[in-house]
Structure formats: structure tokens, C-alpha cells
Amino acid sequence: MNSKEEQINSENINETNSSSKEEQINSENINETNSSSKEEQINSENINEIEKDYNFGWSRYSEITNGRFAMLGFIAIILIELFSEQSFLKWAGIL
Length: 95
Known about the structure:
By secondary structure, this protein is mainly α. Helices cover 85% and strands 0% of the residues. It has 2 domains: 1-52; 56-95. The chain contains 3 helices and no strands.
């Protein structure tokens, strides 16, 4: 009889362990969802912050805008060199 009781107890422990593992997995999934929603919220706050901060002079908005135009200019120079098959300085008449 003791062996049957021990078997039942071990089955109960296994069921408890499996349910606690499921709960742990569920809580991890919830935490991942919460962290991704927090990141989305932070990103939207940063975008709103950038739009509100437009001022003339040295500001975050103007630096981001200048950086974007610099990237466009750099790509334009690369495209000019690819299509004209000469350096940008020669194409522009500087050299």
C-alpha cells in the first residue's frame, strides 16, 4: 500500500511541476509581450518628442534632418560616379 501511495504522490508532484512549467512559460510570454509594447510606446514617445522639439538652431530635430539630407547627398554622389564612370570631382569640373 505504501508503494501505491508513493506512486500517487509522485504523479501529483509531476502534475504540479508540469503546471508550474506551463505557468512559467505563460508568464515569460506575457513579459515578452509587455516589453515589446513598452518599446513601441517608447518609440512613439520619441517620435512625438522630435516633432514637438522643432526649433531653429542646434536641436535634435535639425540634426536628424541634416543627417538624412547628408545620406541622400552621399547616395547621389555614388550614383553619379557609377553612371558617369568617372570620379565626382572630375564630373563636377573640380579636377
